Amino acid sequence: MQTLQFSPMTADEFALFWPTFQAIVAAEETYAIDPNITYDDAFSLWCKTPLLSIAVKDEPGQLLGSYYLKANAAGPGSHVCNCGYMVTPHARGKGVARAMCEHSQQAARQHGFIAMQFNAVVASNQVAVALWQRLGFSIVGTVPNAYCHSSLGYVDTYVMHKSL
Length: 164
Description:
Blueprint: E1 5-8, H1 11-27, H2 39-48, E2 52-57, E3 63-71, E4 80-87, H3 96-110, E5 115-122, H4 126-134, E6 138-149, E7 153-163
Parallel strand pairs: 4-5
Antiparallel strand pairs: 1-2, 2-3, 3-4, 5-7, 6-7
C-alpha cells in the first residue's frame, strides 16, 4: 500500500468527491441517504455537520476517498463516535477503507472518544462487515429488514461497536 495523505476536506475536494458520493448513495446498497440529495445538502451532511471530514489522497495528490467523524449522540452519549467512509471507484480493494478506519480511530482517541459505533451497516455489504470485524468491531445488534436494498429488497442492518 502506498503512503496516504489525510487532511481536512476542502470545498474544492468535496466537489471532486461529489460523483463518488452521488454514485454510492444512488446505488442504494450501503448508505441510508436520500438518493436525490442535493449537492449542498450532501456537503453539509459530509463536511459541515461532523466534527471532522477528511480527504484521503495518494502521494501524487489524487483523491481516493473520504471519511467523517462525529459524536454518535449528544450529551451523555457524546463519548462514543460514529464514522462514515466512502472510497472512489478506482481505489476500491486497495486498502483505502482499512487505512481510513485506522486513521479515524486514532483521530477519535485524540478527540476524547472512548468507543466507535456504526449504527446501520447493511448486512449484505459483506466486504465492509468483514473488514470492520477484522479491525476489532463486533456486531452488537441486528435490526431486521431495516434497509431497502435496490436489488435485494429488505435486508438487515448491524450495529457494530469497538472500544477505543
